[in-house]
Amino acid sequence: MSHISATFAIVDMWLYKFRYWYHKKCLRIVLSRYIILLETITCKYIQEKQFIFCYYVIKRGERMDWIRIVQKAIDEIELNIYEEMDADLLSGHQFVSSFYFQKMFSALCGCTVGEYIRNRRLTLAGYEIANTEQSILNIAMKYCYDSAEGFSKAFTRFHEISPLAARKNKSNLKAFAKISLIKNLTGGKVMLGNLEERGYIVKETGAVYYTTDMDRTLSWFTDILGWYGQIEARNELNEGTYGCVNNIPIEIESLRIAPFTGIHMFRGEPIKRVVGFMLIQGVEQLYSFVKSRGWNEISEVENQPWGGKTCSVTTIDGSILTFFE
């Protein structure tokens, strides 16, 4: 038996022994023995062939909730993104060992503390370069770079385009979004926190959308618009043939407590014109949200003669979604 198989076997045993607390307390394990240091997986959750991991350290009966600790560190990074910080500083504010903090951060987030800080700064810097007139040097200094040269190298490595070219061409830049650990651990399911962050609600829609790469299209809807979705059917080549993307989590939509406000996706050549005309609440918030994700293929919000406001987004497939309120 491989090391990882043995680990999963141990995890299954603990889940069986503590199934009451697992189901009633949700991702919590209660142990009563003396000193227990658990650095491996303490919860295994399987969803669509993906393993979702939850890490804890339990010591002298006191449980250290690493999800909470790391999420608080992420929130601190976001609040102080313009300030100098590192893993030692962040771990100190959480009163945990820097060694274990860095280890758990990497395990839960899929990147190191330094990579997360750098990627978030370069994402925000890219938005400012593409949408403001600030000098590149000022933006570099704002995001804690000592020189424009060092910033330019990091920017080019991350966005695969230089700051000057990005500003000149108004290019669509890469975006590294703030990490939500609960969203990661649940596979992006039923996360209503995104609704508050997004700031807008779709009232009605039902468009039909064609794409030749449904996985890529689904990722675009979730990353750029903040929607939810899943691929329901695939062909023998594992290519998506039918799926849905929705303004609200799929689980809530399936309860039939609200009308369907999503888009049906089918495999086919994308239509290079308007494919959806959707009523929403918060069109300015939609515009700001999409721009903050580094996507510039969106029109300015326009006041219409009939009293409404509209703005259109060109998708990764070249189709156009028009939103109005």
Topology:
Blueprint: H1 3-17, H2 19-26, E1 41-47, E2 50-59, E3 62-65, H3 66-79, H4 87-93, H5 98-109, H6 113-131, H7 136-142, H8 148-159, H9 163-169, H10 181-185, H11 193-198, E4 201-204, E5 208-211, H12 214-225, E6 228-234, E7 240-246, H13 250-254, E8 262-267, E9 274-281, H14 283-292, E10 302-303, E11 309-314, E12 320-324
Helix pairs in contact: 3-5, 6-8, 6-9
What this model shows, in words?
By secondary structure, this protein is an alpha+beta fold. Helices cover 43% and strands 22% of the residues. The chain is built from 14 helices and 12 strands. The strands form 3 sheets. It has a 5-stranded mixed sheet with strand order 4-9-12-11-10, with no helix packed on it. A 4-stranded mixed sheet has the order 5-8-7-6, with helices on one face. Strands 1-2-3 form a 3-stranded antiparallel sheet. The longest helix is centred in the middle third of the chain and has 19 residues. The chain is globular, with a radius of gyration of 22 Å. The termini are far apart.
Order of secondary-structure elements: HHEEEHHHHHHHHHEEHEEHEEHEEE
| Biggest pleated-sheet summary | 5 strands, mixed
Number of helices: 14
Strand percentage, roughly?
15-25%
Portion of residues in helices?
40-55%
The computed structural class is alpha+beta
> What Rg do the Cα atoms give?
22 Å
Give the uncertain stretches in residue-range form: 1-63, 186-192
Tell me the total number of β-strands.
12
Oligomer: single chain
Strand order of the largest sheet: 4-9-12-11-10
